[in-house]
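Section 3.1 - Work completed
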Amino acid sequence: MAYYRSNSGAIALIKILFTMNKLYKTTQSMFLAWVILLAFGTSAHAQEPQWKLSLEKGVEWTKYTPNKILLVGSSDWGLHGVDANTGKLLWSNEDLYNSAKSLKGPDGKKLGYTADLIQVLEDPNHAKISDFALVKYTDNVMVKNFVVINIRTGEVVINPKMAGMPVVKVIGPEVATFNYDGSGYIQELKGILLTASFVDMYQAGKPYTQITKFIDLESGKVAWESDQFSSIFLPIVTSDNHLLFIGEKTSAKIDAKTGKPFWTFEVADKKNNFEAFDANIRLTEGYFYQKKGNQGVVSAVELGSGKVLWEKPLSTKDAPMLKAENFGVIVSDEKNFTLMEAESGNTKWTAKKLSGIVVDLGRDRGIAVGEKGKYLTVLDKNSGAEKWSQKIKGIQIDQMTGAGIMYQDEEGSIGLIDFDGNLKWGNKDMIKGPGVLRAKSALDSEVFYADGKVFHVNLVTGEKKEIIGKVDFNEKETPDNLEYTGANFILSSSQNMLGFDESGRVQFQQHWASPKISLAGRIALRTMQVAMVAMAAANAYAEGASTGMMGYQSMASRQYGIQREFFEDMSGAFGQAANQRFKASKSRGVYNFILTDVGEGVGLVKVDKVSGKEVGKIVLNDKEPVYDSDPENGMIFYKPSKKEVFGYTF
């Protein structure tokens, strides 16, 4: 987490990390972080901290980790590990972020510390995994780094150079070669994958070279390696716990224990690459597009055996988008929108030119296509004929429900279209945006706050019910956070909290007055927690619309299909997996921390979210108290000066 200061009172929020590695065996790794900006004056005496840490260089960034290590980034781009209970400095490493000094943002300005620079690993079934973290960053041009560290000792466990990946020098320092998006931690296998593909300019004939190494996380030792395949994005873990690699020239299913291929599928012409790929939701068939001779070809491959099921020519100038479904593959290029049958590859139909995210609605409901932020069009999957279309400005598919397609319009309002194209709730009946807040307690229901009201939506039936008619917060504050704690819902602003259950029964409503300072100094201080199981909520469209290399839509982007199957069959393996994901996450984020007058001066109160009761308070004598916290027990890591961090327990 980065520390920020501002006299304008802006709140810096760091998003919860979310990882989804498999469809049917899903594990969430989540943690919460807080970045607070405050400005006030007080003459009270600060309470003595439990511990104090001083660094010679300035403290720029902190991150609390599940194993009670506080990571501290210093102004010289060093990284330090601190025992969060005692404040003891465990280790320092000044080399991990050296190349990050050169990172620049879209505006060309240098970047400071961000939450993305380091990912602490988590596994609810293996606590020791959180002893490790990935340092990974790139500017997508010259700078890239990949390091695994033990955050208890500061030891570098592995990096591409240590693993023996080829080292090259073009401009600047020597860099070990690795595919940035294809290298990372594979949670199901408890290992690190390093993979590379490149033209070896130093060898006679300049051959295309592939290298892949699988490294045991705890030991840092290479378990297996191969020069037969590579991957341009992190390999997919299959249902039998092996690995599906999709490379530029070679795709393969690999034995995860030995690294031996079960099968490989190569490009027909080595001078060309696979330019597009997608797989159906059950990972039974994959579809590849490549240039072969002077024409394009789409090939269907059985992913269990590697058998080529069919191959069909495709006349197109540019690489098409492929969207695989169980009944076939949709091919969208600059001219046509075509369905190839799953069994034969024969063209079943060609529709008018469409563009946008493609969603199978299941059963005989059709195929939905979001077009250019103006239309939502549904085609008959058997004929390609238009079944219905809705014109709505700025329309984006939000998520699939059992009753239809939830969407957002240009104002951020939420509506629902049923599977026949009728507005189940739209226009005046929409959940009005902007500023809609939402939280899920389960995959079949969601709670929304909008325009001063709270709604409950049954995602199976589409029923929308107003459960709280008017929310009034003191100091004329507007709620800016809604979360599900595992026991209740909390609607909050900087100085107000409202707790209620799924029926809308208010359990408590509390207000803590802002310190008696100028309006400019009333800066929010509180915990931000995102709904724990919002698998495909507000950002589902963005995930779905974004495509990776070769046009492949990542597994996270396939939430529509997952949701559709969930609502078609509320029981079964996926429903069980979804429940496990939720139960593994609900223990986090127990407290809110609120700036107010605590009697002895201006400070913080610690509030239990479930009961709404104060369970602690602390006085901080600082014009700009900046800190983050341990989301499990509420310990405060406070920065009283540029070079210090204090630890408080209260």
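Second construct:
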Amino acid sequence: MFKRKVLNTFIGLAMTSLTFSASAFEDMSQVERMQAKMSLIDAVGAKAKQVQVMNDMIFSFGELGFQEFETSAYLTKILEDNGFTIERGISGIPTAWMATWGDGGPVIALGSDIDGIPKASQKPGVAYHDPIIEGAPGHGEGHNSGQVVNIVAALTVKEFMEKNDIKGTIKIWPGVAEEQLGTKAYYVRDGYFKDVDAVLFSHVSNSFSTSWGAGRGNGLVSVQYDFFGESAHSAGSPWRGRSALDAVELMSVGVNYRREHLRLSQRMHSIIVDGGDQPNVVPSKASIWYFFRETDFPHIKALWEIGDKMAEGASLMSNTSWSSTVLGSAWPQHMNKAIAENAYENIKMVGMPEWSADDIALAKALQSEIGVEPEGLKTELNELTDPPDPKKNTGGGSDDIGDISWQVPTITLRYPANIPNLPGHNWSNSVAMATPIAHKGVLAGAKAQALNLFDLLTNDALMDAAWDYYKEVQTKEDKYTPLLRPKDKPAIHLNKGIMATYKAEMEKFYYNPEKYDTYLEQLGIEYPTVKKP
């Protein structure tokens, strides 16, 4: 790992004063490239206040998927004020956009998710369940932070490009409704990555890492099954009714029995979206929503076919009819080896943040509160490891960045802005996300992402190696086949009702950086707040 003071002594130059000839980048020595990179690290570090404000502001919005209106308006204004042009409403999604700055190639696109989690409202810096608004959504995964990583990195590199007359194009886009796996496959279908040379994605983590290859997590298709029967008086003439809810329950039972005979890597889970109106009316309509997850396209399709068969069987048994709607999809991810190996060197150059005693105290108190070992915060980088053996892959979560990874060389930068050993999609995952833990982790992530972006813009050999891996390894035998059907459309209706219920109250707690230094200060929270022994 590079030690900053040693590197500064070795180079012996004032990094922030450096300028470079654009034509010289291909022939830069290793020392000159280090000089440029240290200049970028310094420039990102100077934006620490901007990092904190952006991170806390988006945290305070706490919007759910497809309803990220405040978040998108806030981010696009920052980008427009800094010279980016914005295409709004891409793929027919009101909160989606594509921001573009620059001229010519290479074209590098940076993305990160922006949506929150239902019922995850939580006061930051408080190591026990204490909602800002009971029942309201919040950033229970930390999606308030990823666009901060990307935008601060992009603005820093943009300034460097202007100063040194470097050609290239930077694009920035949001992962709308990632928790519903609801949008990135539509971006792909509509051609938003056809002229992009590489994608840098970012995602919150409790560690600092990246990865390459396949086999980490599952892909999925998200399907809602709607059943239609006939209403009747549940007591007076139940024989005249045909219960759509019976069909939903029969389908659920059938799927649960079938689980015993499926691979360990499958993940099928569901919620009943509509179970009828009231007990004394036989439900004429009912709906159940499934995620069918597996490690590869053929097995995802096979699970989907099982779902359809179960729906058909439930329909026959209950004398109802049915239809289905795709609400989202995600291909299994495959990340680029050349870009990941380069990014890992940049991660090593930046290193882990230095945690304070207060940061560690918050982490340990929260870990104790939820019943896990109080280990505190991670201080060492994760290793860059080979992909897992596909035969031993027992599955896991999904992200629709997978679809994009099959269009263009892509990696995910995971930056250390949250606390280890949390359950995910939970109020506890919100606790650190507007505190110094997040601020330090996001700043470190922005430094590494700036270096990644710089390398892709100025190192032709890296770009050639990335595309060589993409063509000769990743896609040599495996080909992308969309899970989306031609008639499928983004499910932009999702979460409207929840946000309508809570938005007016949530607006009262939006961060005001002109009045308060941090969101913790605005909420009157002493950092850290822990239970007294």
